[in-house]
Design a protein that fits this description.
105 residues; mainly alpha; 1 helix; 96% helix; rod-shaped
Length: 105
């Protein structure tokens, strides 16, 4: 037969085990909350990276368009110089042809 002292001792053991389990449960809950906080930060970082990726792509397109515009501006003086040189060459040739015609008369 079980006496009261044995029951009391068993209750004390069970109370100690229950207390330990309760502390372990509290630790697990705290770790889960900490993990949730880390996951939220990771989601925010992922969103920021996505935003930055979009902005970098837009910036790249903008730089490419500026490069095209700068290339066009840089080529204009060259085109002007070529046009002026062509005009001078045409005038020299016309003068030479005119001079030969006048000499032949």
């Amino acid at each position: 037969m079980v006496n009261i002292e044995q029951i009391s001792a068993q209750v004390m053991k069970n109370t100690a085990k229950l207390s330990a389990l309760d502390e372990g449960f509290k630790t697990v809950v705290k770790r889960m909350n900490d993990t949730d906080a880390v996951i939220n930060v990771i989601h925010k970082i992922a969103g920021s990276i996505e935003t930055l990726t979009i902005q970098v792509a837009q910036l790249t397109r903008s730089v490419e368009r500026q490069g095209e515009r700068i290339g066009g501006l840089e080529s204009k003086p060259g085109k002007r110089w070529e046009a002026a040189a062509a005009q001078v060459l045409s005038l020299v040739i016309a003068a030479a042809v005119g001079g030969f015609i006048m000499m032949g008369r």
